[in-house]
Amino acid sequence: MVTSSNIIGIHHVSLIVSDTDRSVRFYTDILGLTQTARPVLPFPGAWLQAGSQQIHLLEVENPDPVAGRPAHG
Can you list the domains of the chain with their CATH numbers? Predict the structure, then answer.
């Protein structure tokens, strides 16, 4: 069983957005995050750095049902 003492951090969170460019402007211009390199993926999006964590912006359809969610690892 995992307890809270086993968790040392969170690498990233993924957020679904409807407009990548507008979302990047918000996170960089308003919140001060920096955009980082993103792998080539079959959908628009952006990776942002927030301290030692990342925010992954994914411009995909709402992933309900589960079958529509993008693969991740």
Answer: 11-60 (3.10.180.10)
Amino acid at 8: I
Please write down the HEC assignment for all residues of 22-55: HHHHHHHHHCCCEEECCCCCCCCEEEEEECCEEE
- For the segment 3-57, what is each residue's pLDDT rounded down to a tens digit? 667 878 889 999 999 999 999 999 999 999 999 999 999 999 999 999 999 999 9
Tokens of 4: 């809270």
How many whole angstroms separate alpha carbon 29 and alpha carbon 26? Answer: 5
DSSP state of 69: S
Cα 46-49-51 angle, rounded to 5 deg: 165
| 53 in Cβ contact with 15 (< 8 Å) | no
